[in-house]
Write a structure and sequence with these properties.
26% strand, 325 residues, six-stranded mixed beta sheet, alpha/beta, Alpha-Beta Plaits, 35% helix, Rossmann fold, 13 helices
Length: 325
């Protein structure tokens, strides 16, 4: 065991939580079922305030990884650190610092939202009324706290599930498909909630198939395929274009002809929506704008091109194939 880890294990948990930038780390995390290696030497680092999209095709090993992070199954090899401490040796102390919402929350439909929180709080050993007030405010359900849950929309039920996961004021929140089945309004509400949680210092791990929503919610993404980590990086870095620009202008076809005649413009093209996508001379947007104006084409808009997360995901996972759990 490293000196650093030994030092952190001697620290009070609240001190370690404040001082540790990385709140969840896995070291060569692996899980084998018989001869089948489902999770293969997975190394992750998740920092305080991150909203991490944990992505992979069906059978990539996401569910198995989440079960290990929650202490539900034991790794075959490797380790998990939460707030700088080893989960295997500090399980009872660390797991309350991790909240989780896995699939559809189990709720008492005949009870009010507040009474659902009270009931779960009792099971947890008691939660102060003030904390129930805080989580209801955080998930924007205070105005409906006295109503029976059967009258809630699906989005409200999902937010109540998040409230339950927040009762013990965890540092880390693990959410499996939190926007699954929600209508557009519910998705926006969940997106806003995730941003509020991150702003309050929570670290959120989201497993989701809604890649367009992950692109809008998450600050970082980790993609796994066949149990192995493919990439872990910021959403911005992953979706950043290759030095190209989207250009909206009249006479796009004529402008394309002029640009392709330049040494830097051979890859320029027009999308089916009529947007001109082109490199820039010297890689700078202002030089592209000046070139177009001098050539007689005044852009209505010129913005850096970005890649779609779904397309990148399919490229990195060979079309989304997987055969693990």
């Amino acid at each position: 065991m490293s000196d650093r880890l030994m030092t952190e294990q001697k620290m009070p948990l609240n001190t370690a939580a404040r001082s540790a930038e990385v709140v969840l780390r896995t070291h060569d995390l692996s899980k084998r079922y018989g001869q089948r290696l489902v999770v293969d030497t997975l190394n992750l680092e998740i920092r305080r305030g991150d909203i991490l999209g944990f992505l992979g095709p069906n059978g990539a090993g996401k569910t198995t990884t989440i079960r290990m992070l929650l202490g539900l199954i034991t790794p075959t090899m490797g380790s998990i650190e939460i707030l700088g401490q080893d989960l295997a040796t500090q399980r009872a102390r660390l797991l309350p610092r991790v909240g989780a919402l896995i699939e559809t929350p189990a709720l008492y439909l005949y009870m009010s939202g507040r009474d659902n929180l009270r009931a779960v709080g009792t099971i947890l050993g008691g939660v102060p009324a003030q904390r129930i007030d805080e989580v209801l405010e955080l998930v924007d359900l205070r105005h409906r706290q006295r109503d029976r849950v059967r009258t809630y929309s699906l989005g409200m039920k999902q937010r109540l599930g998040v409230a339950i996961a927040l009762l013990q004021d965890p540092d880390i929140l693990i959410l499996d498909e939190p926007a699954n089945g929600l209508d557009p309004a519910g998705i926006v509400e969940m997106r806003d909630l995730m941003h509020r949680l991150a702003a309050s210092g929570k670290t959120v791990l989201i497993s989701s198939h809604l890649l367009s929503e992950v692109q809008q919610i998450c600050t970082r993404v980790a993609i796994i395929n066949l149990g192995k980590l493919v990439t872990e990086t910021s959403v911005e870095a992953l979706t950043r274009g290759q030095g190209e620009y989207n250009v909206q202008l009249e006479q796009a076809q004529e402008a394309l002809t002029v640009i392709r005649a330049q040494s830097w413009g051979h890859t320029a093209r027009i999308t089916s929506e009529g947007t001109l996508i082109t490199p820039a001379p010297g890689g700078r947007g202002k030089d592209l704008n000046l070139f177009l104006v001098n050539a007689g084409f005044v852009p209505d808009a010129l913005t850096p091109a970005t890649q779609d997360l779904e397309q990148i995901f399919l490229q990195l996972t060979n079309g989304g194939s997987g055969d693990s759990k």
